[in-house]
Amino acid sequence: MSQLCILFLILCINQIHSICGQECTSTQELQNSLRQAQKLLASHEASYLQGLRNLKRKISQLQNSTTRVTRPSDASCTKLEAPLNGRKFGKILLPGHEVHFLCDSGYELVGSETRQCKDSFTWSGQQPVCKEINECASSPCANGGSCTDEVNGFTCACARGWAGPTCQSPTPIFFATTTNISAATTGAAASTSFPLATLLPFVQPSKCSQVQGTTHCTCEAGYTISGRDTSTCTDIDECEVFHNGPAGRLCVHACINTPGGYRCSCPAGYDLSRDGRNCKDIDECTTRQHNCTRDRLCINTYGGFRCVKVECPRIRNATYGKISPTHCERNPCPVENKACAQAPNSISYHHMAVVSNLSAPRVLFRVSAVRMIGDTLRFAVLGSRGRGHFSIQRSDRQTGELLLLSPMKGPETVEVEVEMSELEKRVVIGRYITKITIFISQYEF
């Protein structure tokens, strides 16, 4: 309100007081003065309100124009590529959305597992790479064997005299039997050939020579002298000799005895390794030897594969939407719906394959918070099915580790749920569920 208007109102009020102080002043004059003051106040009040509305409209226009300048409608973060030998999940490139990375079997992730599009249209974290796991780093081949690293495994080339997956088994020692003969044959060294007969593959004639009246008979590798009959060599059954010996087995799976040797075989879903003794899992998902439809994920397991369909949960008071093939997030809750706010903020699905009787204790899985809003994180294993085999422990303030407590024998499929709760002053402000499905092979390799 202008100073002139204020001055005019003061004069009107003084005039009214002056009129009220005169005994002969009429009531009509007093009412006229009051009406003039009310009109003046109403007029300036309307003008003042209109000015406020104009000011708000201009501020709003300035904010909109500023938003259009700083954040164009088509602006987004740059597209991220999947790492070599890995996969990327998440297609939305707007601020607040995340992209997740996962490496193929036999590779480990180096870099950020999750990256978020920031308000500045840049990505958090570092672009990850999938590095092949070097199984030879721990020198698994014993007794002078040389290790060859392979994807998701290794093979050992054993030194002479040793065999087994890690060169832990000594090979059979082939021996010769000497037999004394009549003194009539003494003299210069002579050679004797035994007549060859048609014999079975597992029986061969020995090779004998005479030196100073003594006959020395030897057998080919893989054969031994048959008792007192020095002329016959019998095949050594390496599979039987090394079946349950303290040094281990020749073959990781099945051993087949052959004339003068042996060969190893593998079950369906495996290939024989280059060392001829180990079995290497066939990755049907990578080599596209599976029959999974496009709406299902192919999960490689030891000796096979599984076709998995991931669907977001149906909860009465909340709805979920997929942001990646294995990650569901809760849609915004109405303000008045308290039951929705108590439902999990997100549910992630993970699948992993392990061999039977995997040694324990060992860490199987890690759950970590990308960013924290509250002041505390709490981790727990949900349900009772996995409590005998699993536990949860912390590795740092933002990471929980799923711990395998005892070996599990396959074939079996085990599901375990890990809950990460975020608290602020001991009040839960967010819940995040990770559902882990573990496919246990029937084999220990």
Automatic annotation (TrEMBL):
Keywords: Calcium, Disulfide bond, EGF-like domain, Extracellular matrix, Glycoprotein, Repeat, Secreted, Signal, Sushi. Disulfide bonds join 103-130, 158-167. It comes from the Eukaryota. The keyword Transmembrane helix does not apply. Coiled coil: none annotated. Residues 1-21 form the signal peptide. GO terms for biological process: Notch signaling pathway. Residues 132-168, 235-280 form the EGF-like domain. It is found in: Secreted, Extracellular space, Extracellular matrix. One of its GO terms (molecular function) is calcium ion binding. InterPro entries: cEGF, EGF, EGF-like_Ca-bd_dom, EGF-type_Asp/Asn_hydroxyl_site, EGF_Ca-bd_CS, Fibulin_C, Sushi/SCR/CCP_sf, Sushi_SCR_CCP_dom. Residues 75-132 form the Sushi domain. Belongs to the fibulin family. This is Fibulin-7-like.
